[in-house]
């Protein structure tokens, strides 16, 4: 791993009580949208500073300003007590700042190792960039992060979680004083998260400043020395470790504390309700090895497992994206197989994919057209017309914008101008508005704030309660505790089932990790 000794001049010349980075009265507007209004905060040396706030509150905008991705409309950024203009990412790089951006920004055709070492200024004795040294570091970092996959493969062949680790690794390979992590755990599962937390704490202990954004309040509370809360582009709370409660955070984020968090109550499912979907001994000869489970009408079944357990691939096989080599499925009692995605959709199966933003959105198109993309049935003017009816498309969009509280000035703005979490909600809304018999949801609340989580679960519940089947993969075990049942997957196999609702995290963990792996993560 990179040498973490601060450069000598920063020790001798700068008073350590001066914050490393300070934002003073920073504002930034995008047209009529005020993303940040008069925000002031500082980042001290060696602290872990948590940033929280609802989707669209301005967290990424602040980090993008410090990172030179965008410039402030007014206000200033001070580094070591001196005003600095950070006009481009290279300026931030030269200051020793490193970023894990919300959009991973990797080069798809480059290998993991090349992505990680790209631009590293490791100069060897002869004045050349020492690739070998950079690669060695990258491998150390990969070990620390537990990146158990080939670092030579182009990153486009990696799963979203693996790509997330590459982006994190990329930030860690550099010698830095300040590292900003914008939702680094959004794509990780529990084991990877635990490893990352250890690394974050080690970094801070060696004097590196960490700015840490997350919607998972538990990890914010565990990690942060200080927390700044954003709401609508302003700071609504500042807290020090030990000096606040969960309610204080929630109040700062949403303005109230009622009705938040995953619901504890879920409508009961009749034990004799008909089985809507069943899978038995599915295998694709690769990552799906032996998967069996069923879902009754009205049921929400969760699938728990670590990254790489084969959950996303199982969904892919059901949805006609992956070829099965053996196994049987039924839908409403009849044999089911999907030759391709279109075939799956036609038979009433919907999939909300794991990586929604990059795979599913056309960034320069409007919220409305992204929301209604491909939703011909519900939005065409009439069944003889190939044209989308504006009225119907607007109706669907308005309904979903309301149901999911999507923060957009109006439905005609480009979806790329929405905050990360709000973009996620647009894709979610697209699938929800279509209707289906079986809904497969891969990490449905990833990157989504606590208020919107509640709404997403409510829509899932309403869908199930109408007699349909829901299968949900989530790496946040707390969320899976709401499910009627939780199926546990390890290395491509379903190994057990827990009866809910109210399955505890401990129950799931002991199923998933067995005793020896559990030791590693606690
Ligand atoms: N390039 C842009 N053009 C127009 N509006 C933008 C742009 N970037 C951000 N915004 C707007 O600025 C506001 C703040 O967005 P920002 O991405 O900082 O939110 P966030 O707190 O990071 O949210 P999330 O938790 O969803 O990632 C939002 O209303 C967003 O739509
Ligand atoms: Mg953001």
From TrEMBL:
Matching InterPro entries: AAA+_ATPase, ABC_carbohydrate_import_ATPase, ABC_transporter-like_ATP-bd, ABC_transporter-like_CS, P-loop_NTPase
Keyword match ATP-binding: yes
Keyword Repeat set for record: yes
One Pfam family of this chain: ABC_tran
Residue ranges occupied by any ABC transporter domain in the UniProt entry: 21-257, 270-516
Domain of life of the organism encoding this protein: Bacteria
GO molecular function: ATP binding; ATP hydrolysis activity
SMART domains, per the entry: AAA
Name this protein carries in UniProt: ABC transporter
Keywords: ATP-binding, Cell membrane, Membrane, Nucleotide-binding, Repeat, Sugar transport, Translocase, Transport
Coiled-coil stretches: none
């Amino acid at each position: 791993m990179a040498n973490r000794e601060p450069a000598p001049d920063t020790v001798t010349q700068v008073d350590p009580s001066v914050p490393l980075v300070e934002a003073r009265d920073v504002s930034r507007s995008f047209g009529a949208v005020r993303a940040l209004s008069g925000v002031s905060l500082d980042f001290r040396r060696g602290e872990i500073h948590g940033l929280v706030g609802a989707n669209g509150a301005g967290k990424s905008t602040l980090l993008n300003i410090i990172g030179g991705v965008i410039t402030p409309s007014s206000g200033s950024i001070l580094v070591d007590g001196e005003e600095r203009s950070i006009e481009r990412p290279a300026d931030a790089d030269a200051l020793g700042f490193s970023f894990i951006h919300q959009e991973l920004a990797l080069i798809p055709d480059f290998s993991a190792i090349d992505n990680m070492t790209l631009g590293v200024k490791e100069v060897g004795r002869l004045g050349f960039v020492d690739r070998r040294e950079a690669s060695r570091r990258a491998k150390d970092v990969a070990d620390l992060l537990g990146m158990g996959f080939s670092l030579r493969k182009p990153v486009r062949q990696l799963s979203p979680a693996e790509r997330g680790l590459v982006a994190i690794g990329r930030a860690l390979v550099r010698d830095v004083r300040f590292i900003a992590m914008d939702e680094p755990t959004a794509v990780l599962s529990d084991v990877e998260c635990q490893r990352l937390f250890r690394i974050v704490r080690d970094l801070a202990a060696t004097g590196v400043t960490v700015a840490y954004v997350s919607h998972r309040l538990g990890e914010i509370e565990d990690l942060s020395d200080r927390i700044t809360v954003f709401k609508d582009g302003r700071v609504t709370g500042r807290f020090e470790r030990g000096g606040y409660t969960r309610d204080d955070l929630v109040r700062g984020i949403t303005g109230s504390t009622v009705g938040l968090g995953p619901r504890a109550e879920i409508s009961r499912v009749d034990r004799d309700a008909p089985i809507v979907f069943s899978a038995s001994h599915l295998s694709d000869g690769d990552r799906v090895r032996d998967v069996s489970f069923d879902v009754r009408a009205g049921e929400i079944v969760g699938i728990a497992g670590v990254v790489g357990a084969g959950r996303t691939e199982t969904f892919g096989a059901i949805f006609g994206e992956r070829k099965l080599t053996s196994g049987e499925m039924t839908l409403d009692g009849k044999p089911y197989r999907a030759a391709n995605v279109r075939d799956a959709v036609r038979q009433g199966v919907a999939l909300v994919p794991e990586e929604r933003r990059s795979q599913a959105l056309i960034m320069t198109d409007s919220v409305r057209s992204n929301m209604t993309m491909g939703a011909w049935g519900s939005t065409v003017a009439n069944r003889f017309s190939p044209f989308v009816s504006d009225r119907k498309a607007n109706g669907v969009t308005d309904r979903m914008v309301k149901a999911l509280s999507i923060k957009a000035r109006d439905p005609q703005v480009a979806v790329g101008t929405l905050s990360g979490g709000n973009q996620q909600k647009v894709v979610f809304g697209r699938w929800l508005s279509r209707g289906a018999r079986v809904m497969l949801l891969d990490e449905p609340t990833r990157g989504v704030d606590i208020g919107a989580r509640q709404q997403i679960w409510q829509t899932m519940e309403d869908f199930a309660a109408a007699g349909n089947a829901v299968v949900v993969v989530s790496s946040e075990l707390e969320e899976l505790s709401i499910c009627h049942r939780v199926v546990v997957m390890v290395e491509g196999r379903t190994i057990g089932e827990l009866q809910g609702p109210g399955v505890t995290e401990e129950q799931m963990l002991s199923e998933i990790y067995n005793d020896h792996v559990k030791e590693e993560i606690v």
